[in-house]
Structures are given as structure tokens and as C-alpha cells.
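[Discussion] Sanity-checking designs against the backbone

I'm trying to build intuition for which residues belong where. Below is a C-alpha cell string of 192 positions. I'd appreciate it if someone posts a full sequence so I can compare it with mine line by line.
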């Protein structure tokens, strides 16, 4: 089922309405959809490098807006809507552990997870379920999602297809290193 959904998502990248589909998928992925927007963003940025940053902006705005929906799901309708979604995707045990960590390290979790390809819907729903400060959540989401999508499109714009292969194989490594750099920077600022 996921394979078919992934192939359908790739087919949308060739559509004349691809930017709208990109926005819809980025929005949905941040709250309930299983396929990350990279499945559309990467082929679209490769096809139109001159529009790569515009596509990253569309992806960022839609993802952060979708994150607000995910936050609402966790905040207002967690038991009615979120628990079934978490169970459906098999995230139950991971979500329980994540929520326990969230009460102590909420901002850091948003900053780290927002940069990685780990399903962002877990972060958005957990933020709402933990009643994390909404304004801080939105700023952290905009920062991390923007960095993530602009990093991908910038690499694709300047290095093209070879970078696509590298990103698809090592996206977790690249975003984890970037997240470590961001956290290291915040720690240095906090200590000095």
C-alpha cells in the first residue's frame, strides 16, 4: 500500500498543479500523511532549479501550517483522533517514550526532529498533547522545517542529480549532522 502511495506521489511531481500538490502533501505530512514532501520536492527542484527556493518556501509554509493542525489534533482531540492515527501507523510505543521525553526537552525535540526525515506528525501531535507553548512550537517549526527544505533544494539547485542520489541515500545522516550543529550552537550561546 505504501509503495503504491509513494509511486502516486512521484507521479504528481509531473503535474501542472505540482506546487499545489506539494503544498497539500507538506501540509498533510505534518499532521497525518505517511509520505514526506521530499518525494515531490526533489523531482520538482531537479526539473526546475530556477524555482527550487520558491518550492522550498511553499513546502515550509505548508508544513508549518500542517504542523499547527497536528498540534491541534494533539491538543484538542488527542483521544478521539490522534490515538487511532498513532496506532494505525504503529507508533504507539515510540510515541509513549517520546511524550515522556517531551515534557522535559520539548524545544530541543522540535528543533532536532523538525530537521530530520523522521515523521514530523509525531512531533506536532506530541507538542499539542503535551500542551507545549504554541508560539514557541510555531517558531521552532518554521526554523527547522525551513532549514530542512531549503537545504535540500539548495543542494539540488547547485549539484543536481548526483546530489539527489546522495540525499536519498543519506538524508538522515545529513540532517542529523545539521541538527547537531544547531544544537551545538545553542549550547555554546547558552554556556557563554
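Best answer:
Here's mine. Compare freely.
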Amino acid at each position: 500500500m505504501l509503495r503504491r502511495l509513494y509511486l502516486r506521489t512521484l507521479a504528481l511531481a509531473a503535474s501542472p498543479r505540482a506546487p499545489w500538490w506539494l503544498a497539500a502533501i507538506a501540509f498533510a505530512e505534518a499532521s497525518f500523511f505517511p509520505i514526506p514532501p521530499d518525494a515531490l520536492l526533489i523531482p520538482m527542484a531537479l526539473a526546475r532549479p530556477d524555482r527550487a527556493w520558491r518550492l522550498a518556501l511553499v513546502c515550509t509554509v505548508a508544513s508549518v501550517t500542517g504542523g499547527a493542525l497536528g498540534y491541534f489534533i494533539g491538543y484538542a482531540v488527542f483521544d478521539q483522533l490522534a490515538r487511532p492515527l498513532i496506532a494505525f501507523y504503529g507508533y504507539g510505543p515510540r510515541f509513549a517514550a517520546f511524550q515522556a521525553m517531551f515534557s522535559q526537552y520539548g524545544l530541543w525535540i522540535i528543533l532536532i526532529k523538525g530537521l530530520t526525515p523522521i515523521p514530523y506528525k509525531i512531533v506536532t501531535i506530541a507538542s499539542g498533547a503535551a500542551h507545549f507553548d504554541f508560539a514557541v512550537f510555531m517558531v521552532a517549526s518554521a526554523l527547522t522545517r525551513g532549514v530542512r527544505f531549503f537545504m535540500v533544494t539548495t543542494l539540488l539547485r547547485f549539484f543536481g542529480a548526483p546530489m539527489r542520489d546522495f540525499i536519498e541515500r543519506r538524508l538522515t545522516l545529513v540532517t542529523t549532522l545539521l541538527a547537531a550543529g544547531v544544537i551545538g550552537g545553542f549550547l555554546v550561546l547558552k554556556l557563554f
